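As a warm-up, study this chain.
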Amino acid sequence: MPRVQEAREALGRQLRELRRNAGLTGTALAKLLGWPQSKVSKIENGRQTPTEADIRTWAVATGGEDAATPLLARLETLESMYAEWRRRLGGGTAVRQRASIALEAGATRIRAFETTVIPGLLQTPDYARYRLSQSVKRHGVVDDVDEGVRVRMQRQEVLYRPGKRFHFVMTEAALRYRLCPVEVMFGQLDRLIALCAMSTIRVGIVGFGAELPDSPKHGFWIFDDQMVLVETIGAELTLKEPREIGLYAQVFDRLASVADYGSEARRLLTRVIDELPGTG
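Now compare it with the structure written out below.
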């Protein structure tokens, strides 16, 4: 997440400049604010993101009240780029799903690449339940999985709206990882077979035998060439810089070019189903 770190460091440099212009050492400022000196150092060097309250009190202590507004705008931009899952899911999984509904409703073209899981817009209720339950357990947030599943299924209505274009690409690993019981995976794969036959969306699968033109380091979603979302274990990154968006679009196109579609994708899915334990 280089862009996030760059933004954090830039904010820290501006705060350091305020301190120096006020003729204060880091130790003196920390004493004024009642903070440990290490906190001032971490903020100035981009190792800790200040809160809104931190910036306001810093600005007052250094006589830089006029600088508070642009600094807070920088903080807002930083927070929009990097949102910790614990904070994002603080109101429950359904809140996050509703945010996705708004985002997907406003986009005309959506491209999604996943390496280990089935994309949320293509999930069955049972598969979604295991994915959302895992998030609740991992981040220790409120357990509203039933409502989260309901809203995730509501999200999928966007697939059938006219004027929308969807292109999903996933690796064969996403079909084979045991992230749920076999019977749940069977139902999920069966749904993907049906989705591969739809004319309104494209579903591609990069098989293990494909020669990859690029390394699929992680999953990502591209919205109208305006924004990229990347999910990490700890946070969700929002990228809006044109150069970064172009890079992700380029990687997506390369991986999509070696994916199987239509009847070939259905054959691959059928083979994976046949190899599930208890289905042979």
